[in-house]
Amino acid sequence: MTTNETAGGPVPAPEQRLQMFKLAPDYYQAMIAVDRASRQGLDPRLAHLVKVHASMINGCAFCIDMHSADANKLGEQDHRLLSLPAWRETPWFTARERAALALTESITLVTQGHVPDAVYAEAAAQFDETELAQLIALIATINVWNRLSISTRMSPAAK
User: Fold this and answer.
1) What is the DSSP string of the chain?
2) Segments forming the whole domain that contains residue 131
3) Over the stretch 16-33, which tens digit does the pLDDT of each residue have?
């Protein structure tokens, strides 16, 4: 078991339940291929914003940590990543990013009103059909990764 230091002392990281890559290697490799395919044609910084936002909504610490670090390596600023839960209240996301973030929320929280026509229309106004298809694939894929990571209790400490 790994521990993380906090102001109150060491906190044990959750014990990982199982390792998908070892126990379901064909599936895991297929997910890696799906992930790679879902990003094609999309701006990598936008892709990481979407991945971090979905991961924050889902509460996936492993994916938040990984995709925030990847976004930082591409030059993404911490204040933008940290403000993703309140993106509507900030001035620093473009119209294209806002459309992607709204679509991410609607797809991630699909049981809360499905994907409203207005959200889809805004995304369709900002992305051509191919980009929009890729964006939907990306959002669906990160949601699968989040569910795998959460259910197996992957932790940022498990890197």
Assistant:
1) --EEEETTEEEEPPPP---HHHHSHHHHHHHHHHHHHHHTTS-HHHHHHHHHHHHHHHT-HHHHHHHHHHHHHTT--HHHHHTGGGGGG-S-S-HHHHHHHHHHHHHHTTTTT-S-HHHHHHHHHHS-HHHHHHHHHHHHHHHHHHHHHHHTT--GGG-
2) 38-153
3) 889 888 989 999 999 999
Q: Is residue 24 part of a domain?
A: no
Identify residue 27 by its one-letter amino acid code.
Answer: Y
Q: At what angle do helices 129-151 and 95-108 cross, to 10 degrees?
A: 50
How far apart are the C-alpha atoms of 154 and 158, rounded to whole Å?
6
Task: Give tens-digit pLDDT for 69-82.
Answer: 999 999 999 999 99
In sequence order, which residues have a C-beta less than 8 Å from that of residue 54 and are 6 or more positions away? 63, 104, 108, 139, 142, 143, 146
End-to-end CA distance of the chain: 13
CATH of the domain at 138: 1.20.1290.10
Give the total number of structural domains in the chain: 1
CA distance 75 to 78: 9
